[in-house]
Structures are given as C-alpha cells and as structure tokens.
Design goal:
Layout (H helix, E strand, L loop, with lengths): L11 E6 L5 H17 L6 E8 L2 H18 L3 H4 L2 E7 L5 H14 L5 E4 L8 E2 L1 H10 L1 H6 L4 E2 L22 H16 L1 H4 L10 E5 L22 H14 L7 H8 L18 E6 L12 H16 L9 H4 L1 H8 L2 H12 L7 E6 L5 E6 L16 H5 L11 H36 L4
Parallel strand pairs: 1-2, 1-4, 2-3, 4-7, 7-8, 8-9
Antiparallel strand pairs: 5-6, 9-10
Family: Belongs to the short-chain dehydrogenases/reductases (SDR) family. ERG27 subfamily.
Protein name: 3-ketosteroid reductase
InterPro entries: Ergosterol_Biosynth_ERG27 (IPR051593), NAD(P)-bd_dom_sf (IPR036291)
Length: 444
C-alpha cells in the first residue's frame, strides 16, 4: 500500500531515521517500534518508520532484519501490523541525493512527526595508543568517556557536487557534510511534512544525535566546517549542540525561521496545514559499542570491558549496547509534547532553555534519558549550580565548572553566528543546485 493513501489523521505517527543499516541507527528503529507498541497497547494508532541507508541492498537487508526483530519482540501478531518499516536511500555527502530523497518523501508521505538525524562518520584514522593506555590505567572513567587519544587528519574535503557550476562551489568538509550539513539540508527540505505534524505528539521535531565528545573547545566559528582542526568529528558535534540548544532564542530567530520555512520545491509539496513550527532537540547515546571507530575484534571486546568497568565505577553514560543508547533519541521522537515540556520546565523556570538529553544507565542497567552538561551551556542553560537534584548528583567531566553568565552570553552569541553562517551556506548551495538541475534535470 502506498504510504500516501494511509489515514492521515492523528492515528498515524511517522518518523524518519537516517543511517539505519547498523549500529545506533538500526537500534533506534527497533526501539521506536518496541516503545510505540508498549506505550500504546490500548489504542489503534500506527507507526511508520522511514529509515535511510546508502544503497538498495543495505536497505533491503535492514528491512528484513527489522521485520525479524518485530516478529520476535511482539507476542501478539496483530500488534506488529501497526508498525511499518519503509526503506529509503541517501548519501548525505551528495547534496543532489539529499534533494532527491526530500522530493520522494514530500510526494509519498502525508507528514513527518519527527526526523532523527543520526547518520554520520567519525573521520578517525587511528588511536594514539600510549596516550590511550596511560589514560585507561590512571583515570579510566575520564579516558573512556571523554577520550583525547583518537587520531584524525585535518582538511578532508568532498569531491565537487556539480558538473556545470563546479567552479562556483564552496568547499565542503567531509565530516562536516556527513554529520551536519547534509542533515541540515534534508531537515529544511522536509519542513512541509514537519509542519503538518500536530497529533498525537504535538509539533514536528528535529532530533539531532550528538555525542558526549562534543565540546566548544573543539569548535572555532572561523572554521565552521572543521577543516583546520585535528578533531573534525568533535567539532561537528559541537556545532550540532550549538545549533540545537540556541534554536529557541530570540537572537537566532531570523535564521531559525528561515530554516523552518517551507520554501523547498513547492511544486511537489502541498502547503503546510499548520502554522506551528517544529521544535529542535539534541540527544546523545551515551557510550556504546559501535563500529564508528574500526577496531579488531579483541580490541573491540577490550573496549566493551573498559566500558563495563567504568559503569561499575559510577559512570552514568556507559550504556554499552546501541539499543540502550537509543533511549534518548527515541524518547524525544515519541513522547507527547507535554512530557518534553515538563522535563525542560525546571530549566526554563530558572532562566534557562533547551537541554541536551542523553541516554544514561546506572550500575544495574536501568536506562533513562537525562540532561547532559554542555560546555558553555551547563544543564539547560541555567547559570550557576544545576537546579535538578539528579543533575547535581551525576558524575561530571573532570574540570567541569558551573555555568557563568558570561559563558552563557558567549554561547548565545556563538549560536547566532552559527545559525547565520549555516543559513547563508544553505541558500548558497540551494542556488547552485537549482542551477545544476535546470541544466541536467532532477535526480530522482
């Protein structure tokens, strides 16, 4: 059945997940299905999970695996029929591919309730083993939570995106495009669908998947794409945090409003049926075992052992499995808006704003989403000590200090500049891609 013919009322929830062929993205899809069915046992609502991979083969393999998961995890077959998985292909480093996916989604689906922007690359080429071994032996929890020993080259750039206007193209950094800009373009392009959300969860949501390793220390506004840094992954995730956490501020409003606009390809999308703009949230999976940093099997299991030991020593972030790491992104995607508003209310009531939500676990494996301290933003942008007791009692990054007013003002200024630069870059690329498509036709 064509998804566009499905009932478009509030009985349907539609979520897009990028990068789902394995690891965290695959687990987000599994957990979306599990939690949707668990929390809505007594109603007739349905869930459609659109997931992206980079090829049809990977998409078909992932679809089979997801359907097998659904069959084995649901005790009542009729319940499983309420969840549909829908594969799509996209290469986030190919902006014409991003456009093609956007058009297919706008034509095929009645709405999107959430987009979970998960896909990405690390860009690392190795590990500084002396630093890693010393850190694990002398300060294990710090070393395996906020590592400083991953090795990455600077200056990795993508090939030209176009044929006819290649001489006009600005340079695109590989990690920046894969982790941030490709998603940024995709999210803007599907805004018509996000604007049609509303029931049952509330306004549409853009849910970014960041990292604990994100730090403003790795980010330079004069090097937005992280071309000059030896930590391009950390720089890209810091940019993700900055954009998300400042998206509600008056100072960023002109550029955020432009980003939320529904101006993409109006010929293939119906006008938005609601004036309520989406909300932007940021999450992270804690520390779990994935293949983003390639390791030989013995080293991978040694890494998991160190994660388990860190959890026993009091780390709240070592979720270990990608399924547990999916906790926070899924919570942000599926929860009623009233639940998210209540979670952020303590921060707003004390002069703060958005919080960064991370997947956390205790020693016994209890999994839950919790606020995460961010350099320059603290917990939810509240100046001074954390206002939520659980935040005060949670183990902190070594050297962390309470947020000051000056730091918060710098973070807000940084957010304004980041939003301005990102919107300028998006509009520049939209013009170039328009010109390319006029000459060569659309890539569907």
């Amino acid at each position: 059945m064509n998804p566009s013919s499905v009932d478009e009322t509030g009985n349907k929830v539609v979520v897009l997940v990028t990068g789902a062929n394995s690891g965290l993205g695959y687990s987000i899809c599994c957990r979306l299905a599990d939690e949707f069915l668990t929390s809505r046992q007594n109603d007739n609502r349905s869930l459609t999970v659109i997931f992206t991979t980079r090829s049809t083969r990977k998409g078909n393999d992932t679809l089979r695996n997801l359907q097998n998961h659904l069959r084995t995890s649901v005790s009542e077959p009729p319940a499983a029929a309420r969840v549909t998985f829908f594969p799509e292909n996209v290469d986030l480093c190919d902006l014409l591919s991003v456009r093609a996916l956007s058009r297919r989604l706008n034509k095929t689906f009645p709405k999107l309730d959430a987009v979970v922007l998960n896909a990405g690359i690390g860009g690392w080429t190795g590990i500084n083993w002396p630093v890693a071994i010393w850190g694990v032996l002398t300060d294990l929890v710090q070393a395996v939570t906020w590592p400083s020993y991953k090795v990455a080259p600077a200056g990795l750039v993508l090939d030209r995106q176009t044929r006819t206007v290649a001489d006009k193209e600005p340079q695109l950094a590989t990690v920046f495009c894969a982790n941030v800009f490709g998603h940024y373009m995709l999210a803007h392009n599907v805004m018509p669908l996000l604007h049609r959300s509303g029931s049952p969860n509330g306004p549409g949501r853009v849910v970014w998947v960041s990292s604990l390793e994100a730090s403003s220390n790795h980010f330079d506004i004069d090097d937005l794409q992280g071309l000059r840094t030896l930590a391009p992954y950390e720089s890209s995730k810091a940019l993700t945090d900055i954009l998300s956490l400042t998206s509600h501020l008056p100072s960023t409003a002109p550029w955020v409003k432009s980003f939320y606009s529904t101006d993409f390809d109006n010929s293939t999308s119906n006008p938005a049926t609601t004036s309520q703009p989406p909300n932007t949230y940021v999450s992270h999976p804690g520390i779990c075992g994935t293949g983003i940093l390639p390791l030989a099997a013995p080293l991978f299991y040694a890494m998991l052992a160190s994660f388990w030991l860190a959890r026993l020593l009091g780390s709240p972030w070592h979720t270990m499995s990608t399924y547990m790491g999916a906790c926070a992104p899924v919570w942000l995607a599926l929860s009623a808006q009233s639940v998210l508003d209540a979670a952020e209310a303590p921060y707003l009531n004390h002069g703060g704003g958005r919080a960064k939500w991370g997947s956390s676990t205790n020693r016994s494996g209890l999994n839950q989403p919790v606020s995460t301290e961010v350099d320059g933003w603290g917990h939810g942008g509240v100046v001074g000590p954390a206002v939520v007791e659980e935040d005060r009692n949670r183990r902190r990054k070594r050297g962390a200090v309470d947020l000051t007013l000056e730091e918060k003002e710098r973070f807000e200024d940084l957010g304004r500049e980041c939003w301005r630069h990102m919107e300028e870059l998006r509009m520049q690329w939209d013009e170039l891609l328009d010109e390319e498509e006029v000459r060569f036709g659309r890539k569907e």
